[in-house]
Amino acid sequence: MLTEQQFREEIKVFVERMRENKLNWQLKENGRYARESHLETMSDGRNVSADVHILYSSTYQVPTLWFNYFENNGTPIPFDTVVRDILKISVSEESDSSIRQRISHYEHPILGVLYYNIHPCNTSNVMKELKTEKGYLISWLSIYGQQINLKMPDFSKWQ
Which residues contact 155 (CB under 8 A, 6 or more apart)? Predict the structure, then answer.
């Protein structure tokens, strides 16, 4: 588990390091969360906007990943399209342990609009099993970030 104070300290360092690596992360709401946006190319060749946020879940005491994808006109992309064309999860991968089963569509706790998130209920158990010298947030992102194809630098070089 991670306290909110630890989260705020780690998210600040994380954003600084990401900016050093020329990745577009920013602290928002006085350090309550980090945000990154970029373009994703869908399987049909269209570019869509991706918006990714890292927030703290006080209920589960872990970081949470919130994300959404938008057409050029600002329309959110439907879940089935996100899964098939952006996350590229095939029907054969849709088991109980699939990332698809852990993605929820809820009201964003700060923005108040619908966003996808990877539900944090199992995060604490996953993190207990992970043996690492890296910080909690970086270790967490090495697992959860890759599940939504988040572009990240080589974490093996981080202290």
Answer: 134, 138, 141, 142
Number of domains in the chain: 1
Instruction: Give catalytic residues, as residue numbers.
Output: 121
CATH number of residue 40's parent domain: 3.30.1460.50
CB 57 within 8 A of CB 140: no
3-state secondary structure of 43: coil
Domain residues for the domain of 105 are 4-157
Backbone region of residue 5 per phi and psi (left: phi > 0; alpha: psi in -120 to 50; beta: other values): alpha
Residue keyed to tokens 């050093």? 20
pLDDT in tens, the chain (159 residues): 889 999 999 999 999 989 988 889 999 999 999 999 999 888 788 899 999 999 999 999 999 999 999 999 999 999 888 888 888 877 665 555 556 677 888 999 999 999 999 989 888 888 888 766 678 888 888 888 888 888 887 766 665
